[in-house]
Write a structure and sequence with these properties.
The protein is mainly α and about 110 residues long. The chain has a domain at about 25-95. Helices cover about 55% and strands about 5% of the residues. The chain has helices at about 5-10, 30-45, 50-65, 70-75, 80-90, 95-105; strands at about 15-20, 20-25. Strands 1-2 form a two-stranded antiparallel sheet. Strand 1 and strand 2 form a beta hairpin. The longest helix has 16 residues, at about 30-45. The radius of gyration is 16 Å and the shape is globular.
C-alpha cells in the first residue's frame, strides 16, 4: 500500500513577520487565497485601477496571510516595503531586502 500523507506534504515552513517587536505568523498561501488575490488583480487591470487600488489589493493579500497584523501597521510603510513583504510571504528569497526597504524609506 502506498500512502500520500498530505499532512506532511502540506506542512509549510514556519515564517513570521516582526513589526514593532511583535511577531506575526504567516499562514501558508492557500489555493483559495491565491484565487482571491488573482481575481482582485485581474479586476483592477480590467478596470484600469489606480496605483492606490493596487496597493489596497496588496495590503488585503498580506492581511489574508498575516491575520494578526493590523492594516494600520502596513499603511505606514513605503510601497517598496510592501513588495518585499509579499515576496517573503510567497517564500521568495529576500536576502538584502531589509537594506533595500530602509533605502526606499529614506533611512
Amino acid at each position: 500500500m502506498k500512502i500520500l500523507n498530505l499532512d506532511k506534504l502540506n506542512k509549510a515552513p514556519e515564517r513570521q513577520l516582526t513589526i514593532d517587536g511583535v511577531d506575526h505568523p504567516i499562514q501558508p498561501l492557500s489555493v483559495e487565497g491565491f484565487i482571491e488575490t488573482t481575481r482582485a488583480v485581474e479586476k483592477i487591470i480590467a478596470e484600469g485601477g489606480s496605483p492606490a487600488d493596487q496597493l489596497e489589493v496588496t495590503i488585503d493579500m498580506i492581511l489574508r496571510q498575516v491575520p494578526t497584523l493590523a492594516r494600520e501597521k502596513l499603511t505606514q510603510y513605503a510601497p517598496e516595503t510592501l513588495e518585499v513583504i509579499v515576496k517573503f510571504i510567497r517564500g521568495d528569497d529576500v536576502e538584502g531586502a531589509e537594506q533595500a526597504a530602509e533605502d526606499a524609506a529614506g533611512k
